[in-house]
Write a structure and sequence with these properties.
Layout: H1 4-8, H2 15-40, E1 46-49, H3 56-64, E2 70-75, H4 78-86, E3 95-99, E4 112-118, H5 127-137, E5 138-149, H6 156-166, H7 186-195, E6 198-212, H8 215-224, H9 228-235, H10 240-255, E7 260-273
Parallel strand pairs: 1-2, 1-4, 2-3, 4-5
Antiparallel strand pairs: 5-7, 6-7
């Protein structure tokens, strides 16, 4: 039996490709553009991206940051990081790709003036330790920008995926989607940031729209583009393709046939190192 934390951390096998192909525009691209713009406006010298996944934010940062800005891109999962590197559009920009655990970053104190993390903090087993590491590698008065999903109630795609998958399991349904949507409490996000030694904390709720070419494409990504696929296969009691079909039908029932447009809501935290 795997714990939620273990199941949620294994972005391996075919997951990186399915994640990038089917979930990029659906869940991550709209917020990536927003967070990259926030970082670029600071005109930073040295930027660290944590939990980069397949590089959806990385590619936006490469486009948005000043040419003289160095960018270090990290992720815990080597397959995800390698996929991000393969999709890179850096073309001469100073970019370093480095596998790294966010809770034990392999960088000296004060190495960066901006740290960025989109939708990664929710997966940290010890969130306080992760935020302390963000603080440590920032220089004095450096800026942290990180985002977390709001609740299931405001992110219906994730909610529908969670509930639909759960109907296929009488016992021990996969709980993956509880993790990304598990930090919707703004007060808790601010407290976590403050406890890690940050000041001037601002949290904004950002509502954007994701898209997919079809409900079936969205369902493919929501089932096969993250570690929930590992949990389904390890339980061995449900057919993956049947789950994808059921989820596609549920998405169509909510959003209609054809091109999907779905609401996405997240909290973006900006803070300064004391």
């Amino acid at each position: 039996m795997f714990s939620i934390a273990e199941e949620s951390a294994r972005f391996d096998g075919s997951i990186p490709e399915m994640y990038d192909r089917y979930l990029g525009a659906l869940l991550f691209e709209p917020h990536a553009a927003d967070i990259a713009e926030r970082a670029a406006e600071l005109r930073p010298r040295r930027v660290l991206e944590i939990a980069a996944g397949t590089g959806i934010v990385s590619r936006r940062l490469i486009e948005a940051l000043p040419e003289e800005t160095s960018l270090t891109v990290t992720d815990l999962n080597a397959p995800m990081l390698e996929y991000a590197r393969s999709k890179s559009t850096a073309r001469g920009r100073d970019v370093e790709w480095r596998q790294a655990d966010a809770q034990q970053l392999p960088f000296p104190d004060g190495s960066f003036d901006v740290v960025v993390c989109q939708f990664g903090v929710m997966f940290f087993p010890d969130k306080h330790r992760g935020l302390l590491e963000f603080n440590r590698v920032l220089e004095k008065d450096g800026t942290l920008i990180f985002s977390v999903w709001d609740s299931f109630e405001t992110n219906p795609v994730q909610s529908i995926a969670h509930s639909t998958i759960g109907t296929f399991f009488q016992e021990d349904p996969p709980d993956f989607y509880k993790v990304p949507c598990g930090m919707g409490n703004k007060t808790e996000a601010v407290r976590l940031t403050e406890d890690a030694g940050f000041k001037d904390i601002v949290i904004e709720t950002v509502s954007l729209t994701g898209s997919s070419s079809s409900a079936e494409s969205a369902a493919q990504g929501l089932v096969k583009g993250n570690p929930v696929i590992n949990a389904i296969r390890e339980r061995g009691t449900a057919d993956v393709d049947e789950i994808v079909l059921a989820l596609a039908r549920a998405l169509e029932a909510r959003f209609g046939a054809g091109l999907l447009h779905v609401p996405l809501r997240a909290h973006v935290v900006t803070a300064t190192k004391s």
